[in-house]
Amino acid sequence: MPRIEIICVGNELLMGSTVNTNASWLSQKIYKLGCVTARHTVVGDDVDSIAEAVREALKRRTDLLIVTGGLGPTYDDKTLKGVAKALRRKLEVNKEALKQVEAKYRELAERGVIAKFELTPSRVKIATLPSKSIPIRNPVGIAPAVIINYKTSKIICLPGVPAEVKAIFTESVAPIIKQMVGDLFVAEGCLEVKSLPESSIAPILDKVVERRRGVYVKSHPRGFEGSEPKLEIYISVTKPSKAEAEAVKEEVLSELATAICEAGGEVRRKQP
Ligand code: ATP
Ligand code: MG
Question: Can you give the pTM of this predicted structure?
């Protein structure tokens, strides 16, 4: 299983004014591809903090490091400077990235969004990447994403705008992860349980996951309904084929439901 980490860059994330939806969206997608993200890190718009977070992730032998945010033209977009510092690489105008940025601004000028086409220093900044970077097309925004191969690790820098993260991930990053992970399929299920506290469920869960590889079961207490405890049990099964994942999921769901009923709980299947 590859080790994947995510670093999100942005003062607004640390201030709490923006919810870090990029980390959760990316991790959900990565999970559906068969891999659990090993760590999320959030740092501010500061070159040294970014460089330190990148260096630490690489020290943990991370195979794929995804960095989001801070690829734009403004003074506070410092991600590539931070990554270059961590890798001791120079920042240089990347020809291919500049072509992509130029094409975007020409199109904006043709559509009348900007008064005239011009490659200003702020626009050239977007195409200034650490040396040996590979730019990736941004289908919905201006800043290209960036792939950097460093020793045995791959670093992928994505913009911060959630719509851009989603489009670039789907088009260019998911196929890379799929290749790293190989053929793995995830089947998910959920049970809603009433009238049994979590402490009574715990031994049932232990028994179900014991001796089963690729099965993850987690209970989520949902408080009380009247005086009755209520909780949800989330099940996910990762296997090399979809049919096997589905079959094991069904087996686990019915084994859990039977054991919970026998212990006096009420069970209902729910959409995960
Ligand atoms: P831009 O070219 O727009 O400056 P950028 O790559 O520099 O893009 P940021 O400036 O970091 O990205 O963020 C752009 C927008 O996306 C901001 O509104 C920011 O709040 C939002 N954003 C950034 N990071 C995240 C995140 N992790 N989760 C959700 N939203 C985010
Ligand atoms: Mg920005």
Answer: 0.89
